Amino acid sequence: MPLPPLPAPDALSAGFWQAANAGRLVVQECTECGWLAYPPDAVCPGCLTPKRSFRWRQVSGRGVLRSWTVVHTAFLPWFGPLVPYVVAAAELEEQGGLRLTARLADPPGTPLAYGAPVDTVFEELADGVAVPLIRLTPAAER
Amino acid sequence: MSTTSRQVAVVGYAHSPVLRHVEGPLGAVALETALAAIADAGLRRDQIDGFTTGALFPSSGGGPLVDGEQIVTSEWLVEHLRLSPRWLAGFQGVGQIPGAMILAADAIAAGSADYVLVHRAMYNPPTRYHERELPLAEGRDQWSAPHGLWGPPSQMALAYMEYMQRYGASRESMAEVVVEARRNGSRIPWSHWYGRPLEREDYLDSRMVSEPISVLDCDIPVTGVGAFVLTSAERARDLPHRPVYIAGFAQGRWRSTNSLDYWTLDDIYEGGAKTAARLWESTGFGPGDVDLPQVYDGFSPMVYFWLEVLGYCGVGEAHRFVADGGIRAGSGLPVLSGGGALGNGRMHGVPQTLECYLQLSGRAGPRQLPGVEVGVACQSTPNFGGVVAYTNAPG
């Protein structure tokens, strides 16, 4: 049985994965300029401050669909049984260009549209390891 | 214009057969090809006093990466050619052929070397190219692998889908690109696709890898080596073939304010505009001066990106440009006349560079295009790669 590619939390990422396991989506916020970074970066991409002073900022998980791909060939064997699955790119509402790239929670074949409203849910990849998924926001919740 | 413009020339080349796999070490193929290129330039082995390459290899299929086996650095080549060159360098990163050509041009113009061999060795692992067992996603991989995002086809698919959605492009338009590359590649004796053009329907029916990228939107992994010999414009006069001068060049490295492991369409355009502006500044040319815009096509959408940033059509218009016959042999721009990567196999920037050299030196044989004076050879994406301009007109 192939193993899932579990994230390896490190100094830069541990806070993100802790929050994910609690069902919260957080991004790296620079305390100098307020820039939000995902993935978290070694140096703030907004102001390049050498202070490297960050905190985790919870975001809504809401945004719009900017792109997607339907994966038919899974190069990571664990995902083989899931094909065809969709990897989506969502631009989060908190900052222009702030992108979350994750699998789509909706079933294969769900019609997708550029700019469609999306939000974020969580799924366990393994016991105690949750990853965000992007979901088309149900019409009633838009 | 760059002060090195037309000071350095390509004076010879060699190309191995492009095969899916070869018996024995890749280094042996590289050595044989290097010696053939040196002989083609009318030189002796011991006259080559500079070597460079961009050895970075896209994937070893999770297997080992051993110098001389799966990659061939200039260091390996020099050692096995039993030479002690005075100049030796390696290009780091992506856009390997333009990167190495630029290093070589600068070294020759500076007098650091008289005759430089630039080679590129490509290897196809026996396993599937991008397949990996990855129980732990460390470093940057933790932002992609746990999400099922893995490998360049998916990364390119995200940029291409964004393009298709924004500009209303269809796979029917892209058929023009892939069929044209294969038509031209089928006429090249060393190509993997020699004698095997592609029907439009076969492209449209091809197996999806990461939709909208099908298997035929990706160049096929191959094993092969290309090599070029460069020297100063002055020394080139004494050599047997018509020199093809480096007229200028540009590189691009642009990721705006994200650290995603794929390129957004905006990053491609923003970075590409910088690369194109540098190219025209470096050469003194504009897009209309180029007879052979050999755009990169390792993934088919890259053809659109290069066509647009180089100014052959507006942003978002390349899909209509190609659908209207804009790149078709005979009537359109010869942007894939050398077959590119889609028509030769995954030789990275070698086919684009070789087509510029062969056409501009008058050595393209039955494929020779009349009256060509300027070409550009692109590699990778315009925001994250390089481009070199060539001309047969002396400075």
Structural features, described:
The complex is a heterodimer of chains A (142) and B (395). Chain A has one helix spanning 14-21; strands at 6-7, 26-30, 36-37, 54-58, 63-71, 85-92, 99-103, 117-126, 129-136. With 142 residues, chain A is mostly beta strands. Chain A is built from one helix and nine strands. Chain B has 395 residues and is of the alpha/beta class. Chain B has helices at 26-40, 74-80, 96-110, 152-167, 171-185, 200-204, 233-236, 265-283, 301-309, 318-323, 340-344, 350-360, and strands at residues 8-15, 50-53, 87-90, 115-122, 136-137, 208-211, 213-214, 224-232, 244-253, 292-294, 374-381, 384-391. Chain B has a nine-stranded mixed sheet, with helices on both faces. A two-stranded antiparallel ribbon of chain B has the order 6-7. The radius of gyration of chain B is 20 Å and the shape is globular. In chain B, 58% of the residues are buried. The mean pLDDT of chain B is 95. The chains are: A mainly beta (142), B alpha/beta (395).
Strand content of chain A: 35-45%
Task: Please tally the helical runs of chain B, counting DSSP H or I stretches of 4 or more residues.
Answer: 12
SSE run of chain B: EHEHEHEEHHHEEEHEHEHHHHEE
| Cα distance spanning the termini of chain B | 12 Å
Structural class of chain B: alpha/beta
The rounded Rg of chain A comes to 16 Å
How are the strands of the largest sheet of chain A arranged? 7-6-5-8-9
Strand order of the largest sheet of chain B: 3-2-4-8-1-9-12-11-10
Please indicate the percent range of residues of chain B in DSSP E strands (runs of 2 or more).
15-25%
The major beta sheet of chain A can be summarized as: 5 strands, antiparallel
SSE ordering of chain A: EHEEEEEEEE
Radius of gyration of chain B: 20 Å
Total helical segments of chain A? 1
Low confidence ranges of chain B: none
What is the approximate shape of chain B?
A: globular
